[in-house]
């Protein structure tokens, strides 16, 4: 009875941590909202740089232009965008062109803010029963989220890459489901991420962080939904296979130059190497009981081997650091997120040398990967005095209500 009373008391106390007055809104959410709005207005003046690709693909998919339908990717291999992204882009088609762009930018910005909230809640779920200070956790999410938002606005507003936005959003939902032990939902969300943007395949090691008994079910959902989305295009036009070999220029500031790769376009081995490196590092992270590092490691593999250096690529890195800083480690100051922002975004703005920028990207990718995989970490103790953090420690269908019946999301 004493333990039960203590749990209820803790739930009541946690329910009020960080709230503004008696309302449901917490201070760190309000501050992050204001921070997002500020960056939105800074970026929207020169925003939606790539929105025309989504609009073109949506029109091709629904047969409004010739050469579309199931022949979309065969005739337009430059559209390296998943069919789910084109379907979602269709939601903005009824609006006037300018209005649709601004509405899409605002919606995608809002998704980024929601993702920060979801990761905060995932962290609260992950640390339930470990004596974690929820106020410190909220502060950690606030500081890491403040680093994440500028890069999120870069991908969602300035470039308006709905495909990248959806891939990262669905991956965030997968992380939330993973922490709650929801194997089917985890598989579904990872499939939707891959169906939005092909490079999201590198996030699939998250499935290995589920209990072993659920691997087959979750993987079946992932493979099945990926097949449903992509197979019709391959079966409808076999030339779609050629789209996988589409190349882009090998830019001077890429880290590939430091490996001696001076080809003018994407080397034939580059994309497979990206995927293999991301999947391998992610699997190793899960093996070492550090599954919150999977997204960061996949993003590191992408930026270190990609022939292009667009700043919106860094949004996946900052999502990875946000997940790591909120869930993977327990320090109050999430310095990994801020090092990522300063080194990747800051160098793009102030470092004039292409070669130096490539070296900075390489140094961050290698350094952050080594840190999350090898640095000794202090693991939280569970209610029975044992350790948590390994993949098999994630229970099935756990919800915060099981331990905090009066309050579902103590950290928010």
TrEMBL record:
<keyword id="KW-0812">Transmembrane</keyword>
<feature type="transmembrane region" description="Helical">
    <location>
        <begin position="215"/>
        <end position="235"/>
    </location>
</feature>
<feature type="transmembrane region" description="Helical">
    <location>
        <begin position="141"/>
        <end position="160"/>
    </location>
</feature>
<keyword id="KW-1133">Transmembrane helix</keyword>
<feature type="region of interest" description="Disordered">
    <location>
        <begin position="382"/>
        <end position="412"/>
    </location>
</feature>
<protein>
    <recommendedName>
        <fullName>DUF2029 domain-containing protein</fullName>
    </recommendedName>
</protein>
<keyword id="KW-0472">Membrane</keyword>
<feature type="transmembrane region" description="Helical">
    <location>
        <begin position="332"/>
        <end position="352"/>
    </location>
</feature>
<feature type="transmembrane region" description="Helical">
    <location>
        <begin position="103"/>
        <end position="120"/>
    </location>
</feature>
<feature type="transmembrane region" description="Helical">
    <location>
        <begin position="358"/>
        <end position="377"/>
    </location>
</feature>
